[in-house]
Amino acid sequence: MSPRLAPSTGGPRVIAGTRGAEGPVRVRIGAEVVEWRPGETLIETLMAHYYGRRGRGSFQGCRRGGCGACKLRLEEGVVALRRDHSRDVLAPEERACGLFLACRAYPLTDLAVRPVARRNLFFERYGRALARAESVSTSDRSSPGR
What we know:
By secondary structure, this protein is an alpha/beta fold. The chain has one domain (3-118): Beta-grasp domain (Ubiquitin-like (UB roll), Roll). It has three helices and eight strands, in the order E-E-E-H-E-E-H-E-E-E-H. It has helices at residues 42-49, 92-96, 121-142; strands spanning 13-16, 25-29, 32-36, 71-76, 78-81, 99-101, 105-107, 111-115. The longest helix has 22 residues, at 121-142. Residues 1-9 have low confidence and may be disordered.
């Protein structure tokens, strides 16, 4: 496990659950604070009040736990995370270290979160094979006698 992925102890926690707090919760992301309301996933709140504002790009992702575009690092607070997400985009070790998917999350307390670098799962799965196939195809065309 990388030193940057040390399991959290006693501080911020990502726990299993399908419901958030019963009242509004403050969510700090960077220098901004937005208010989450019951009944929304965290990504719905961030889409309405954070992404696409003040020069930030709009959110593009599946919103169903399959792409990892909404992955955040929990710095303070407790968040409930639904279990119905791809283990390819959020491994149990990552969850233990405070990473979670905003599309599957509901705040239980005030939170401080930070976006993490997004992985390109398509390239990781298929990009190397496509690059090899392209390399083979190019070398076939450059071979003498073809």
